[in-house]
Amino acid sequence: MKSLFKIAIVAGIMVSLSSCKDNLKPNYQYMPNMYESVAYETYSESDAFNSPTGLKGKEGQLPPIGSIKRGFVPYEIPNTTEGYNFSKSVIISPLDSTEVDMTKAAELYGIYCAICHGTEGNGKGKLVTQEKILGVPSYADRQISIGSIYHVQTYGLNSMGSYANLLNQKERWQVAAYVMELKSKL
Fold first, then answer.
1. How far is C-alpha 96 from the chain's CA centre?
2. Cα distance between residue 91 and residue 146, in whole Å
3. Which are the contacts of 116, defined by CB distance < 8 A and separation ≥ 6?
4. pLDDT tens readout for residues 21-69
5. Higher pLDDT residue, 57 or 134?
């Protein structure tokens, strides 16, 4: 009799659990706040972050002063004329020879630089030949080093803007190495 009672209880539990399942609706979530985070409006007041004055802080926090993003190496030469002149004395790339991929560097040069500077570095890019911009010198006519090329890519010079937002540091050093190779062929 007791075993029949136990079977009836187990069968009752099984029926009740299977009857709650609906294949058209998602099942119950264990700890739903782990799956669906609380949505905060950007820059709205929030109890999650307290300000130093003890008031409610804002949700969108600024990074701490002096912090840098992971993998970023600060470039210490300032964006001044003196900084540019100093960058000409940098003649060695921080990348070793195995890190410089000339195929990729040529590809990046073709995407970002050749439109103005030309595929050979002669200053006869498509925009120059169509007279959209003027005054792009040949690399052969310039006194440049790998450091000054990197400096100009980082900060820009004259009418050329910065490429720091388009090329990461390693890519800029690779393009600088490629430009020096082009200069040696002119």
1. 22
2. 6
3. 125, 127, 128, 133, 136, 160
4. 666 776 666 677 677 776 767 777 777 666 665 556 776 677 788 888 8
5. 134
Secondary structure E strands in 24-76: 45-50, 56-58
Q: Is the pLDDT of residue 98 over 70?
A: yes
CA dist., res. 155 & res. 23, Å (int):
58
Separation CA 104–CA 60 (nearest Å) = 37
The pLDDT, as a whole number, for residue 124 is 92
- What angle separates helix 146-155 from helix 169-185, to the nearest 10 degrees? 130
pLDDT category of residue 81 using cuts at 50, 70 and 90: very high
3-state secondary structure 110-136: HHHCHHHHCCCCCCCCHHHHCCCCCCC
Average pLDDT over residues 96-114: 93
Q: What pTM, to 2 d.p., does this model score?
A: 0.66
CB atoms within 10 A of CB 133: 13
In this structure, what token pair is assigned to residue 66? 């002096």
Which parts of the chain are beta strand (E)? 45-50, 56-58
The torsion defined by the Cα of 174, 177, 181 and 183, in degrees rounded to 10, comes to 120
Of 86, 88, 108, 79, residue with least CA distance to 171: 108
